[in-house]
């Protein structure tokens, strides 16, 4: 994760808990690592206070970060998060999508595949699948603009990655067409790859 100084990243679901329930999660760890490498980070989380906790910790370390309420399953909320990044920094260089809704209804030990209410399944799909679609939809135009601006200066830049993989570059594929995803998100990744944008990172759970 080198070469990220002054890059602008949006972390979708990067909150830090109050430790009475849960502390820093995967998204918060990603946000702090990006900031440690010099990136400017915009953090969204369903728990707005948790998003601000992560941003506060990053700023305490001398880096740049802001937090905002963000509901991955809500298209307008996603749009507002990307707009915040543009308002703060004028660009988006990459996103990390880590959102998943884990409600009391499906972790209480009382339900299984047969009895879990359908509204819980729908919320999971809204957040985990459509949430990624919304994030890509509102980030991709800004990613394309960033690449176009670099090309016009004749200083093409390599796409910026956030990935679980230690070796994120598949062979025999052009750099602009690569997107990493797993399981149910493969289709979204392939679609964003066809837009010739820098890759969208996501983590399937």
What this model shows, in words?
By secondary structure, this protein is an alpha/beta fold. It has one domain (8-202): NAD(P)-binding Rossmann-like Domain (Rossmann fold), CATH 3.40.50.720. 40% of the residues lie in helices and 11% in strands. It has five helices and five strands, in the order E-H-E-H-E-H-E-H-H-E. The chain has helices at 26-36, 48-60, 75-89, 118-152, 186-193, and strands at 8-12, 40-45, 65-69, 94-97, 201-202. It has a five-stranded parallel beta sheet, with helices on both faces. Mean pLDDT is 79; it is low at 160-184.
List the keywords.
alpha/beta; 5-stranded parallel beta sheet; 5 strands; globular
User: Judging from the principal axes of the Cα atoms, what is the shape?
Assistant: globular
Superfamily (CATH H level) name: NAD(P)-binding Rossmann-like Domain
- Name given to the CATH architecture: 3-Layer(aba) Sandwich
- Main sheet makeup: 5 strands, parallel
Record field, number of beta strands: 5
- The fraction of residues assigned to DSSP E strands is 5-15%
CA-atom Rg in angstroms: 17 Å
CA-to-CA gap between the ends?
22 Å
> Roughly what is the average pLDDT, rounded to an integer?
79
Summed up, the domain count is: 1
- Name of the level-1 CATH class: Alpha Beta
CATH topology: Rossmann fold
Low-confidence stretches: 160-184
Work out the helicity level.
Answer: 40-55%
The ordered H/E elements are EHEHEHEHHE
Describe the strand arrangement of the main beta sheet, using strand numbers: 3-2-1-4-5
Q: How many alpha or pi helices? A: 5
